[in-house]
């Protein structure tokens, strides 16, 4: 379920970035900053997802070791 939540958040970032894209009369640097912010957000969500997966693996490993000792 968490993976789906991260996917929805990523799509949300992309949609908000699409709406916030600077118009023709705006400075070009705004597009660079927008892309950098969107990328940072998506990378952050990906890292949280990886951290969650790693934590799940450690928990399953600890549970299987505890079951073997019982």
Molecular structure report:
This protein has 70 residues and is mostly helical. It has one domain (2-19, 30-69). Helices cover 86% and strands 0% of the residues. It has two helices and no strands. The chain is rod-shaped and about 70 Å long. The two termini are 31 Å apart.
Global mean pLDDT: 93
Alpha-beta classification: mainly alpha
The outline comes out as rod-shaped
DSSP helical segment count: 2
List keywords for this structure.
0% strand, 70 residues, mainly alpha, rod-shaped
What can be said about this structure in brief?
86% of the residues lie in helices and 0% in strands. With 70 residues, it is mainly alpha-helical.
Write the layout of secondary structure elements.
Blueprint (H helix, E strand, L loop, with lengths): L1 H19 L8 H41 L1
Helix pairs in contact: 1-2
């Amino acid at each position: 379920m968490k993976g789906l939540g991260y996917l929805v958040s990523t799509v949300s970032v992309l949609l908000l970035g699409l709406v916030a894209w600077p118009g023709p009369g705006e400075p070009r640097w705004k597009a660079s900053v927008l892309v950098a912010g969107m990328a940072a957000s998506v990378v952050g969500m990906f890292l949280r997802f990886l951290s969650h997966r790693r934590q799940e693996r450690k928990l399953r490993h600890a549970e299987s070791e505890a079951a073997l000792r019982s």
